[in-house]
Amino acid sequence: MGDFFTVEWQDGAVVMLDQRLLPTKEIYRTYRDYRAVARGIKDMVVRGAPAIGVAAAMGIALGARQLKKIGDANEFERLCRVFATTRPTAVNLFWAIERMRRVYQRVVRRGAHTIRETLEREALKMHAEDIAANRRMGRHGAALIPKGANILTHCNAGALATAGYGTALGVIRAAWGQKKNISVFVPETRPFLQGARLTAWELQKEGIPATLITDNMVGHFMQQGKIDCVVVGTDRTAANGDVANKIGTYTSAVLAARHGVPFYVVAPTSSIDLSCPSGKQIPIEERSPREVTHVFGKQIAPTNVRVANPAFDVTPHELVTAIVTEKGVAHGPFQKTLLRLIRENGERAKGEKGDRRRMSAEIPSSS
Question: Which positions are catalytic?
Answer without folding.
Answer: 235
